[in-house]
Amino acid sequence: MDPFDLTGCRALVTGASRGIGLAIAGGLARRGAAVAITGRKADALEAAAASLRAGGASVLPLVCHQGDPLAIAGLFLALDSQGFTPDVVVVNAATNPVMAPLLDTDLVAWQKILDVNLTGALVTAQHAIRRMLPHKKGSLLFVSSVAGLDPIPSLGAYSVSKAALLGLTKTLAKELGPHGIRVNALAPGLIETRFAAALFRDRAAYEKIVGAVPLGRHGQPDDLVGAAVFLASEASAYLTGQVLVVDGGGRM
User: Fold this and answer.
1) Which single residue of 106, 155, 157, 220 has CA 20 to 30 Å from 4?
2) Does residue 45 register a pLDDT over 90?
3) What percent of the chain shows pLDDT beyond 70?
4) pTM here?
């Protein structure tokens, strides 16, 4: 058997209308998984679904705002109505409306970041886990960040939310291991996406980050695909509670 084969698997990828989420959804689909993807905007989500279908993927696009627990509940009810019970869930959706140190971070922005990046991730995981438990198997994958391991001063609240996400990963891994459900995290470095555009515009920050990368470049969304397929598949069957850093060696 090919341990990376996902034929017959159903995968949910949140925040997949573009960037890292879309790349991961495409990678899982190419290994045989049927994929459900979410995003906040229907038009962008439909465009993403069309691009995946053009590559032969089976795709179910569903609008969902990860900062809204009721929307997340509705997402899983919609999946239930389609007979789509995920074996793999990639929690990728995130937000960062502010670039500022914690001292200057407005509490409204702080709360929004935590609502999406942490609380929304937990609520998504809770709904997914309840559906995985009867099957005694499943793979949860949180997309964190190297900022969760080594805080970026201009991204104070974002760094805290991603550090907390790593704590969530390890806690769930310990709780769910006895039930056959694995929980891991990806920690990308600087990836060229619209989400990270502010860091690319700040040339001093950009050069500092890339200057510390042995591979000498920033990443692309496709650089996360192999790692995500590994953690989703049976290739990582004896691996849980781990953080896989994908940053070109910047944290060696």
Assistant:
1) 220
2) yes
3) 100
4) 0.96
Burial of 46 (0-12, 13-18, 19+ CB in 10 A): middle
The set of catalytic residues is 158
Q: Which distant-in-sequence residues (6+ apart) come within 8 Å of 131 by Cβ?
A: 76, 80, 85, 86
Cα–Cα distance, 233 to 50 (Å, whole number) = 25
